Amino acid sequence: MPQGVPSTVPDDGLTTRQRRNQPVLAVHTGDGKGKSTAAFGMAMRAWNAGMRVAVFQFVKSAKWKVGEESAMLALGQLHADTGAGGPVEWHKMGQGWSWLRANTEHAEDHAAAAQAGWAEIARRLAADEHDFYVLDEFTYPLDWGWVDTAEVVDILARRPGRQHVVITGRRAPQKLIDAADLVTEMGKVAHPMDAGRKGQKGIEW
Protein backbone atom coordinates (compact mmCIF):
# COMPACT_ATOMS: atom_id res chain seq x y z
CA MET A 1 0.00 0.00 0.00
CA PRO A 2 2.46 2.72 -1.16
CA GLN A 3 1.81 6.27 0.08
CA GLY A 4 -1.37 5.13 1.84
CA VAL A 5 -3.20 4.26 -1.40
CA PRO A 6 -5.21 0.99 -1.29
CA SER A 7 -4.24 -1.55 -3.95
CA THR A 8 -7.92 -2.37 -4.51
CA VAL A 9 -11.18 -0.51 -3.90
CA PRO A 10 -14.21 -2.69 -3.07
CA ASP A 11 -17.53 -2.12 -4.79
CA ASP A 12 -19.38 -1.64 -1.50
CA GLY A 13 -21.29 1.54 -2.23
CA LEU A 14 -19.32 3.52 0.36
CA THR A 15 -17.54 6.79 -0.26
CA THR A 16 -13.80 7.08 0.37
CA ARG A 17 -14.54 9.05 3.55
CA GLN A 18 -17.04 6.47 4.83
CA ARG A 19 -14.64 3.62 4.18
CA ARG A 20 -11.76 5.48 5.85
CA ASN A 21 -13.78 6.23 8.98
CA GLN A 22 -14.84 2.66 9.73
CA PRO A 23 -13.75 1.30 13.13
CA VAL A 24 -10.69 -0.93 13.12
CA LEU A 25 -10.17 -4.23 14.93
CA ALA A 26 -6.44 -4.96 15.09
CA VAL A 27 -4.67 -8.06 16.39
CA HIS A 28 -0.97 -8.19 17.28
CA THR A 29 0.10 -11.81 17.73
CA GLY A 30 3.08 -14.12 17.22
CA ASP A 31 6.09 -15.16 19.31
CA GLY A 32 8.15 -12.04 18.69
CA LYS A 33 8.68 -9.07 21.00
CA GLY A 34 6.78 -5.81 20.51
CA LYS A 35 3.10 -6.73 20.34
CA SER A 36 2.06 -4.64 23.34
CA THR A 37 4.62 -1.94 22.57
CA ALA A 38 3.09 -1.42 19.13
CA ALA A 39 -0.41 -1.30 20.60
CA PHE A 40 0.60 1.32 23.17
CA GLY A 41 2.21 3.35 20.39
CA MET A 42 -1.12 3.33 18.56
CA ALA A 43 -2.81 4.40 21.79
CA MET A 44 -0.51 7.42 21.97
CA ARG A 45 -1.47 8.34 18.42
CA ALA A 46 -5.14 7.99 19.40
CA TRP A 47 -4.57 10.26 22.43
CA ASN A 48 -2.96 12.86 20.20
CA ALA A 49 -6.06 12.75 17.96
CA GLY A 50 -8.23 13.55 20.98
CA MET A 51 -9.68 10.07 21.33
CA ARG A 52 -10.86 8.58 24.62
CA VAL A 53 -8.31 5.84 25.35
CA ALA A 54 -8.76 2.83 27.65
CA VAL A 55 -6.18 0.10 28.30
CA PHE A 56 -7.13 -3.23 29.87
CA GLN A 57 -4.21 -5.49 30.80
CA PHE A 58 -4.97 -9.17 31.25
CA VAL A 59 -2.64 -11.74 32.89
CA LYS A 60 0.23 -9.40 33.88
CA SER A 61 0.96 -9.07 37.59
CA ALA A 62 -0.07 -5.81 39.22
CA LYS A 63 3.55 -5.47 40.36
CA TRP A 64 4.75 -5.36 36.76
CA LYS A 65 5.08 -1.70 35.83
CA VAL A 66 5.49 -0.88 32.17
CA GLY A 67 6.84 2.47 31.10
CA GLU A 68 3.92 3.03 28.74
CA GLU A 69 1.53 2.99 31.70
CA SER A 70 3.27 5.93 33.36
CA ALA A 71 3.51 7.78 30.05
CA MET A 72 -0.14 7.24 29.15
CA LEU A 73 -1.40 8.23 32.59
CA ALA A 74 0.74 11.37 32.40
CA LEU A 75 -0.90 12.17 29.07
CA GLY A 76 -4.29 11.60 30.66
CA GLN A 77 -3.38 14.07 33.41
CA LEU A 78 -2.22 16.53 30.77
CA HIS A 79 -5.63 16.27 29.15
CA ALA A 80 -7.35 16.87 32.49
CA ASP A 81 -5.15 19.90 33.18
CA THR A 82 -5.01 21.53 29.75
CA GLY A 83 -7.54 19.84 27.46
CA ALA A 84 -4.79 18.52 25.18
CA GLY A 85 -5.29 15.07 23.68
CA GLY A 86 -7.96 12.87 25.22
CA PRO A 87 -8.82 11.16 28.52
CA VAL A 88 -6.94 7.99 29.48
CA GLU A 89 -7.90 5.01 31.66
CA TRP A 90 -5.60 2.09 32.55
CA HIS A 91 -6.87 -1.08 34.24
CA LYS A 92 -4.96 -4.22 35.28
CA MET A 93 -6.52 -7.57 36.12
CA GLY A 94 -3.68 -8.47 38.47
CA GLN A 95 -4.55 -5.75 40.97
CA GLY A 96 -8.29 -6.23 40.74
CA TRP A 97 -10.42 -4.49 38.15
CA SER A 98 -11.16 -1.01 39.48
CA TRP A 99 -14.94 -1.43 39.05
CA LEU A 100 -15.08 -4.52 41.30
CA ARG A 101 -15.46 -4.15 45.06
CA ALA A 102 -13.25 -7.10 45.91
CA ASN A 103 -9.57 -6.85 45.07
CA THR A 104 -8.66 -9.90 43.00
CA GLU A 105 -4.88 -9.60 43.34
CA HIS A 106 -4.68 -12.82 45.34
CA ALA A 107 -7.76 -14.51 43.94
CA GLU A 108 -7.17 -18.08 42.81
CA ASP A 109 -9.87 -17.96 40.16
CA HIS A 110 -8.09 -15.94 37.50
CA ALA A 111 -10.60 -17.16 34.92
CA ALA A 112 -13.42 -15.45 36.82
CA ALA A 113 -11.39 -12.23 36.97
CA ALA A 114 -10.78 -12.36 33.22
CA GLN A 115 -14.48 -12.96 32.60
CA ALA A 116 -15.36 -9.99 34.81
CA GLY A 117 -12.93 -7.82 32.87
CA TRP A 118 -14.39 -8.85 29.53
CA ALA A 119 -17.96 -8.28 30.82
CA GLU A 120 -17.04 -4.71 31.75
CA ILE A 121 -15.35 -4.12 28.39
CA ALA A 122 -18.45 -5.45 26.60
CA ARG A 123 -20.60 -3.06 28.63
CA ARG A 124 -18.38 -0.13 27.71
CA LEU A 125 -18.40 -1.09 24.04
CA ALA A 126 -22.20 -1.19 24.04
CA ALA A 127 -22.29 2.22 25.73
CA ASP A 128 -19.68 3.67 23.33
CA GLU A 129 -17.63 4.90 26.30
CA HIS A 130 -14.21 5.02 24.63
CA ASP A 131 -12.82 5.60 21.15
CA PHE A 132 -9.70 3.44 21.40
CA TYR A 133 -9.26 0.22 23.40
CA VAL A 134 -6.13 -1.81 24.04
CA LEU A 135 -6.93 -5.31 25.29
CA ASP A 136 -3.38 -6.29 26.24
CA GLU A 137 -2.62 -10.04 26.42
CA PHE A 138 -6.30 -10.78 25.87
CA THR A 139 -5.48 -13.65 23.51
CA TYR A 140 -4.44 -15.79 26.50
CA PRO A 141 -7.87 -15.89 28.22
CA LEU A 142 -9.30 -16.72 24.80
CA ASP A 143 -6.74 -19.44 24.10
CA TRP A 144 -7.24 -20.96 27.58
CA GLY A 145 -11.02 -20.98 27.22
CA TRP A 146 -11.60 -18.52 30.05
CA VAL A 147 -13.52 -16.19 27.72
CA ASP A 148 -15.56 -17.41 24.75
CA THR A 149 -13.97 -16.31 21.48
CA ALA A 150 -17.23 -16.52 19.50
CA GLU A 151 -18.91 -14.18 21.99
CA VAL A 152 -16.02 -11.72 21.78
CA VAL A 153 -16.09 -11.70 17.98
CA ASP A 154 -19.86 -11.19 17.96
CA ILE A 155 -19.79 -8.29 20.44
CA LEU A 156 -16.91 -6.62 18.61
CA ALA A 157 -18.75 -6.97 15.30
CA ARG A 158 -21.82 -5.25 16.78
CA ARG A 159 -20.02 -2.44 18.61
CA PRO A 160 -21.63 0.91 17.85
CA GLY A 161 -19.96 4.10 16.73
CA ARG A 162 -16.32 4.28 15.69
CA GLN A 163 -14.56 2.37 18.48
CA HIS A 164 -11.13 1.04 17.56
CA VAL A 165 -9.92 -2.10 19.37
CA VAL A 166 -6.39 -3.54 19.47
CA ILE A 167 -5.87 -7.01 20.96
CA THR A 168 -2.41 -8.37 21.77
CA GLY A 169 -0.88 -11.70 22.74
CA ARG A 170 0.43 -14.97 21.38
CA ARG A 171 -1.72 -17.70 19.85
CA ALA A 172 -4.60 -15.51 18.74
CA PRO A 173 -7.59 -17.77 17.94
CA GLN A 174 -8.32 -18.16 14.24
CA LYS A 175 -11.87 -16.82 14.67
CA LEU A 176 -10.45 -13.59 16.04
CA ILE A 177 -7.89 -13.34 13.23
CA ASP A 178 -10.60 -13.91 10.63
CA ALA A 179 -12.72 -11.12 12.14
CA ALA A 180 -9.88 -8.57 12.36
CA ASP A 181 -9.26 -5.74 9.90
CA LEU A 182 -5.55 -5.55 10.70
CA VAL A 183 -3.44 -8.53 11.78
CA THR A 184 0.28 -8.39 12.49
CA GLU A 185 2.23 -11.51 13.38
CA MET A 186 5.53 -10.69 15.04
CA GLY A 187 8.21 -13.33 14.62
CA LYS A 188 11.43 -13.53 16.57
CA VAL A 189 14.66 -13.44 14.58
CA ALA A 190 16.96 -12.70 17.53
CA HIS A 191 16.55 -11.68 21.17
CA PRO A 192 19.07 -10.66 23.86
CA MET A 193 17.73 -13.40 26.13
CA ASP A 194 19.05 -15.93 23.63
CA ALA A 195 22.49 -14.84 24.82
CA GLY A 196 21.53 -15.01 28.49
CA ARG A 197 20.89 -11.29 28.87
CA LYS A 198 18.06 -10.25 31.18
CA GLY A 199 15.49 -7.61 30.35
CA GLN A 200 16.56 -3.98 30.67
CA LYS A 201 14.76 -0.92 31.96
CA GLY A 202 13.75 1.23 29.02
CA ILE A 203 13.75 -1.76 26.68
CA GLU A 204 11.43 -4.35 28.28
CA TRP A 205 9.61 -2.01 30.69
From TrEMBL:
Top-level class of the enzyme under EC nomenclature: transferase
User: Per its UniProt record, what Gene3D superfamilies does this chain match?
Assistant: P-loop containing nucleotide triphosphate hydrolases
Q: Give its E.C. classification number.
A: 2.5.1.17
Any GO BP annotation: cobalamin biosynthetic process
Keywords per UniProt? Transferase
Taxonomy, superkingdom? Bacteria
Q: Where is this region: Disordered?
A: 1-20
Keyword Transferase attached: yes
Q: Pfam families from the xrefs?
A: CobA_CobO_BtuR
Q: Annotated Gene Ontology MF terms?
A: ATP binding; corrinoid adenosyltransferase activity
* Alphabetical list of InterPro entries matching this protein: CblAdoTrfase_CobA (IPR003724), P-loop_NTPase (IPR027417)
Descriptive protein name: Cob(I)yrinic acid a,c-diamide adenosyltransferase
Recorded name of the encoding gene:
cobO
